Amino acid sequence: MNLKSQFASITMSQELFHSSTPLELESGEILNEFDLTYSTYGQLNKKKTNVVWVIHALTGDSNASEWWNGLIGEDKFFDPSRYFIICANLLGSCYGSTCPLSNIPDSDQPYYYDFPELTTRDLAASLERLREFLGIEQIHTLIGGSLGGQVGLEWAYLLGKKLSNAVILASTAKTSPWVIGINEAQRMAIEADKTWGERTESAGKKGLEAARAIAMLSYRHPDDFQKKQLDFEEKLDGFKAASYIRYQGNKISKRFNAMSYWTLSKAMDSHDLGRKRGGVKKALSEITARILAIGVNSDLLFLSEESRFISEHAPKGRFKEINSTAGHDAFLIEFEQLSYFLKSFYLEVK
Prior knowledge:
By secondary structure, the chain is an alpha/beta fold.
């Protein structure tokens, strides 16, 4: 299916990959088959050396030129006239890939709460299946932020010399207790929804709104709220910050699903690059690709020092820091800084 993106001269191709080969998960459960929706931009060059693989964050989708339009598109850093850009909707997400709303194979009944537990390693393994299907032998750059960065690290470990560069933004090699606690608070909000437990697509919808409200407080920094949500008039109620948080909760409930949110937040909790590999430091030391780990100075979720840790223990690691009041979400906003960091990274002598 050929679609036109918001960039008139860029054609986005959106396809569905179906794997009929069972995928054994870290939990021991098996997905007998699964689908991944993926989008591509541009063309593979003759040497097949221009692949840029984008991995989206928690509630993202495969339409990378829409949610990362300052980085991907005509005359942007990753211009489809130069690069062959791929972005797949992660397994467990509700934007076309197999998720809790999908039907159980050979059945007309959705998984719902019976959907298997996923880890970031499982998500990377599913992307590896797609790579093999597409016949891509070498990835020039793997890039992802937040959950996408976690999956990117796992996949970088698996890819070995098939990957040249990995750009890991506002992410970590192992999920901290702080992040797990924030995610659990969000899941408690979903659990508190009286519809949670019902076997319907809309179950947990109001709880998801509350979960997103909690999440937004970790995605932003107090300085950003002070700058953008401050009320200058005296009042007793109806504050801008309250309206903003409610708006964000309402918006996510219209476009995402509580069960997918639950599944992917659990996958984020599971992230530990060093699990069964001798620890995080050892696992990082075995990644052969050049790594650019980018932190955000105001990130309250994945602290900047966690990005620095990645760079310090990867053999070819580099660290850069975004300076912004936007907090965690700066990796989706500060395109000028990102483009500068990427340009410098590519210009370095290998």
